[in-house]
Amino acid sequence: MLxxxxxxxxxxSKVFILLILLVLEVVVFTIxxxxxxxxxxxxxxxxxxxxxxxxxxxxxxLLMVRGYVDISASAVGCFTTMMVATLxxxxxxxxxxxxxxxxxxxxxxFVNAVLxxxxxxxxxxxxxxxxxxxxxxxxxxxGTNRIDIKDPTMVALGTQRIxxxxxxxxxxxLICIIVYGFILSKTYFGKSIYMIGGNPQAAKLAGFNxxxxxxxxxxxxxxxxxxxxxxxxxxxKAGALDSITNGQFTGMTGAILGGVxxxxxxxxxxxxxxxxxxxxxxxxxxxLLAVPPWWMTFGSGALLLFALAFDRFAxxxxxxx
Amino acid sequence: MAQETEVKTSVMNNGSQGLTxxxxxxxxxxxxxxxxxxxxxxxxxxxxxALLGENGAGKSTLLKVLSGDIRPDEGEVRINGVPQKFDAxxxxxxxxxxxxxxxxxxxxxxxxxxxxxxxxxxxxxxGILRKREMKQTAEKIISDFGLDIDPYEKLGxxxxxxxxxxxxxxxxxxxxxxIAFDEPTASLTDTExxxxxxLIKRLKEEGKIILYxxxxxxxxxxxxxxxxxLKDGRMVKQLNTAETNEAExxxxxxxxxIGDTYSALKRNDKIGDVLLEVKNLTTDAIHDxxxxxxxxxxxxxxxxxxxxxxxxxxxxxxxxxxxxGEVILDGETVHFKQPKDAIEAGIALCPEDRKxxxxxxxxxxxxxxxxxxxxxMKKGLILDRKKxxxxxxxxxxxxxxxxxxxxxxxxxxxxxxxxxVILGRWTSELLTTKxxxxxxxxxxxxxxxxxxxxxxxxxxxxxxxxVIFISSELPEVINIADTIIVMHNGxxxxxLARADATEEKVMSLAMLD
Lengths: 321, 513
Ligand SMILES: Nc1ncnc2c1ncn2[C@@H]1O[C@H](COP(=O)(O)OP(=O)(O)OP(=O)(O)O)[C@@H](O)[C@H]1O
Ligand SMILES: [Mg+2]
Hints:
The complex is a heterodimer.
Chain A: H1 6-12, H2 14-32, H3 40-66, H4 73-89, H5 94-118, H6 123-142, E1 147-148, H7 152-159, E2 161-162, E3 166-167, H8 168-186, H9 188-198, H10 200-205, H11 210-236, E4 238-239, H12 247-257, H13 269-288, H14 293-320
Antiparallel strand pairs in A: 1-4, 2-3
Helix pairs in contact in A: 2-13, 3-8, 3-9, 3-11, 3-12, 3-13, 4-5, 4-6, 4-11, 5-6, 5-11, 7-11, 8-9, 12-13, 13-14
Chain B: H1 2-16, E1 20-30, E2 33-44, E3 47-52, H2 59-66, E4 74-79, E5 82-84, H3 89-94, E6 97-100, H4 112-116, H5 131-145, H6 160-174, E7 178-182, H7 190-205, E8 209-213, H8 217-223, E9 226-231, E10 234-240, H9 246-254, E11 274-282, E12 289-294, E13 298-303, H10 309-316, E14 324-329, E15 332-334, H11 339-344, E16 347-350, H12 354-358, H13 365-370, E17 378-379, E18 382-383, H14 385-398, H15 415-426, E19 435-439, H16 447-462, E20 466-470, H17 474-480, E21 483-488, E22 491-497, H18 503-510
Parallel strand pairs in B: 3-8, 3-9, 6-7, 7-8, 13-20, 13-21, 16-19, 19-20
Antiparallel strand pairs in B: 1-2, 1-4, 4-5, 9-10, 11-12, 11-14, 14-15, 17-18, 21-22
Bound molecules: adenosine-5'-triphosphate (ATP) and magnesium ion.
């Protein structure tokens, strides 16, 4: 029986290509910015910018491996920035305030899952509608004013850095990625997501429960987004509207770059994480070079297309040889 | 419109007299496999040429080369002496080659008409579909085939057999000079097979070249004129059907004699107590189905397509809702809400449609074999890799699955080998099965392995397990099963013991009105 060694497999994987891309990116931006790209200030910027995206990426990867999408994640995050700020301002102790936010987020995920599994609606449509509902509710409930957060513990959690460089929130995000990455690649639960995502009918006939899985994944995705929202509020020391705009798209783009497909059943957490780094690094690079925002949007889209084309080409070469 | 088609056909006919197809020195490799090695043969018009070989011998790959789906590493294909270079299936179709693939290539959410036209929908210059023309032609084709199919029905709602027939209609409509069939009968029952064979005879008389792949030797003798035998990607020999016999073919294909399959079986002779009792089971598709199965017994289900055999086992397995009736397993009335419950109670179901219900196509062979038993492979928090590998290796050995590695994506295996993966999955020793249900398990499986599968069924029976065996190949059911249940239109129309069962008796029960 032919066995490919781990190293061989790694070199053939998308993750390897991405790592090369990441290195290239750092080199190019460093040259273009005359070294500013690797300065402490910029590294702090990059590290800051990936925290929220990381949480959204984790949820998105799990859903996408199952073959679902959740467009409402950013809206959930925005909602909880306002909610946590309001609750704290009302004098609620922080553990309880966070808990309420997570419960509220979980409810959103639950409703998404009900509409998708019980009524058979398309995830894309359901969550798109849900995103709008939440946006509206956010204005209706919390108004449009900025709400300051004064709780010292939470402000500290949101703003302080280990050694002045690595934000505490980033540590939380990394732990989250590692834990979920482990679950996805090594455990029975993770395997079930791949199997159900690969072919729900076959998996069901083999004793899996696709319905239950949909509930778990949507609730999980919303809770992660809710948590990200809270952490963002702590960092900004306030709840502000439109704080996470389309963060889940960055997450999804990262995941796709990393080899997670829309069809479900493929890809992994590590690849998605690297993919997300590539995108975040790219965006920060463009900001640093003072590229106008519309060029940044253009650039992120172009990067994804480029990576997809590159991967296609590479795998084409692979099958030819 | 009808006239137009006729004119077109007759022009094509003149064109296809004296037609030749030469496959010259074709080679094709995939990572870890040489699928074809220097294969050469020639086919002439008005003849049906069979491609014969074990699972993974390279038959489908060869047809994919002809259809422009795969580019060969070496060699060329010539039509009437002119070398053809197909970069895409469209070019092959334009050159007059149609291939009906082993895996259906249809769109389940579209109507029968749209599927028949899939690929080149006729439209006006302004780009508007010519719906009336489509409908008329589709209706004509359906009636040419003598089938009762509503052209507006969504394809996904048709039976597997009728879907397969639509696939054939698609190629028939194109009116190609060269038509290749890759295991067309694997999911058909006798009625459609008869229709198909009449059609092939007609096409042959019209002077077309027909290539025909099948693992059913009886069919090969029935309709083919010449045979090309492939083994491990190489051409073994080309011979005239009239001048050969089964034994010679099997020997060329497998490389050894396998003797008479059925009489060589070591059967179970100790039938035990009752294991499963089904009483008046009724669902949307079946009515009042009752039967009993004992430990160590193989119960076979025969019947035409749509007779409700698959629906019976799906209902027992908890995959379809039951309206009324009772299922008693081991003396206890059970009511499975989902397949999971049935599996936990000791039932395994190997489903009929491997692409839709069996395989996780873009996952590895290993994942596909271990699918129902992952839960039993937990080692602390993680899944035990070694256990998975061991189980998969066993399945590969037991069914001689041809794969270069455990990690190969199952979609890249040959059709028969995919089927073996599913069989391996449902017969693994980690499943503590009391009752094994197999729905068309030998679909697409080569002769040698078929014999092995029969023996595995008998072995399971000898271990005291119950086996339900559904098959549309009559000889197989009446020779393997101890009891044969015949169904028609959702009802059980008869139960026969193996000793009394003949093909005629079963057929007359299956067609009962
Ligand atoms: N796309 C692919 N990628 C990798 N390997 C492939 C691919 N398609 C076919 N193969 C390999 O090529 C070999 C020949 O396969 P092929 O499908 O031609 O067999 P076959 O004769 O049609 O068998 P069967 O009777 O089971 O349908 C097999 O070993 C198969 O695994
Ligand atoms: Mg094949």
